[in-house]
């Protein structure tokens, strides 16, 4: 999963772009629900939130949630089966 760091300026660009509804407003800045973030696996070649974010290096790989491609695919399948 990816992580939004404190560099976030709350521009609201990323939230509507997430195909998994993983992004929401937190107490101070936007946040990513690690249980819903597939790093865009199953939808896009690259993480779309990183593509639209205007501030470099604001959205990074979450060091607490390092996942391989297989794990991300499994998450995609579970999420979209449940929908
Ligand atoms: Fe959503 Fe993709 Fe960003 Fe994860 S990487 S929060 S799935 S847009
Ligand atoms: Fe924050 Fe970047 Fe999302 Fe804008 S696009 S709300 S700066 S993480």
Brief sketch in words of this structure:
Helices cover 23% and strands 14% of the residues. The chain has helices at residues 48-52, 69-82, and strands at 2-4, 23-25, 30-32, 59-61.
Largest sheet: 2 strands, antiparallel
What is the alpha-carbon Rg in Å?
12 Å
Number of strands: 4
Pattern of helices and strands? EEEHEH
Number of helices: 2
Cofactors, ions, other ligands: iron/sulfur cluster
Instruction: Name the structural class.
Output: alpha+beta
Q: In what order do the strands lie side by side in the largest sheet?
A: 1-4
Strand content: 5-15%
What are the segments in which pLDDT stays under 50 over at least 5 consecutive residues?
A: none
Helix share of residues? 10-25%
The oligomeric state of the chains shown is single chain
Name the shape in a single word. globular
Distance between the termini: 19 Å
Provide the residue-averaged pLDDT: 96
Describe this structure in words.
It is a single chain. With about 80 residues, the protein is α+β, with helices and mostly antiparallel strands. It contains two helices and four strands. A two-stranded antiparallel ribbon has the order 1-4. Strands 2-3 form a two-stranded antiparallel sheet. A hairpin with a 4-residue loop joins strand 2 and strand 3. It is globular, with a radius of gyration of 12 Å. It starts with a strand and ends with a helix. The mean pLDDT is about 95. One iron/sulfur cluster binds next to helix 1.
């Amino acid at each position: 999963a990816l992580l939004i760091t404190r560099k976030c300026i709350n521009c609201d660009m990323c939230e509507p772009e997430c195909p998994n509804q993983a992004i929401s407003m937190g107490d101070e800045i936007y946040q990513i629900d690690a249980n819903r973030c597939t790093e865009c696996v199953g939808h896009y070649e690259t993480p779309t939130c990183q593509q639209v974010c205007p501030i470099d290096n604001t959205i990074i790989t979450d060091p607490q949630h390092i996942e391989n491609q297989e794990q991300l695919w499994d998450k995609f399948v579970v999420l979209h089966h449940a929908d």
